[in-house]
Design brief:
207 residues; seven-stranded antiparallel sheet; 3-keto-disaccharide hydrolase domain-containing protein
């Protein structure tokens, strides 16, 4: 079903295909129009469009970021009107292309399009990295090595107060504390530079 979200006091937007179950909200893009940005998703940069993918974890559609941006560009899309503080946030992603960067990940506690927390996996160096992004510039808070990054995988973060626990395919790789962003904020997805990536089943649960 469509989810109604508030952008401002006087504007309502029908969000991308989502459903709530068991206290979770899931965006799977399967009933959204191909070749367009999902309704209710606000793009700060990058080329975010719904695409068909026969390998999608939830058929038939994914959200694709296919822009070949410069190395310093953070390709960001956020879910308008969302406001979460303590949360369990996850997404399935599949790296497609990228010479200097690949992969991508999650953003949360977004103040705006330039200030938020972010988690990223990169197949080029088999890494998972946690960042705080301040004034559109990422500062690394932690990194770990992965053994397998290609194909579809699940990236997840659980944030409780100032603690961030970061998971990849169910295994915890990072556990860090940071208090830069202490208030509730928006959630979203991102890639960096020329990384082209497919995303599916963006899922959030609060507690």
């Amino acid at each position: 079903m469509g989810k109604i979200i508030t952008i401002s006091a006087c504007v309502l937007v029908l969000a991308a295909t989502s459903f709530a179950a068991g206290g979770k909200t899931v965006w799977n893009f399967d009933k959204d129009r191909l070749g367009t940005a999902p309704p209710g998703f606000v793009r700060s940069s990058g080329g975010w469009k719904v695409a068909a993918d026969p390998t999608a974890p939830t058929l038939p559609n994914v959200l694709a970021q296919r822009a070949k941006s410069t190395d310093r560009t953070l390709n960001l899309v956020q879910v308008a009107g969302t406001s979460y503080r303590n949360l369990d946030l996850s997404v399935k992603l599949r790296p497609i292309e990228g010479k200097n960067w690949q992969g991508g990940g999650l953003t949360w506690r977004g103040v705006d399009g330039e200030n938020y927390y972010a988690l990223l996996v990169n197949p080029l160096d088999n890494s998972i990295r946690l960042y705080k992004v301040v004034s559109n510039w990422p500062t690394e808070l932690g990194t770990a090595q992965l053994t397998q990054v290609g194909g579809w995988h699940t990236l997840r973060v659980v944030m409780t107060d100032d603690r961030m626990e970061c998971y990849y395919d169910g295994r915890k790789y990072l556990d860090r504390r940071n208090s830069t962003y202490g208030k509730a904020g928006t959630i979203g997805l991102w890639t960096r530079g020329d990384a082209e990536t497919y995303f599916d089943d963006l899922t959030v649960q609060t507690f």
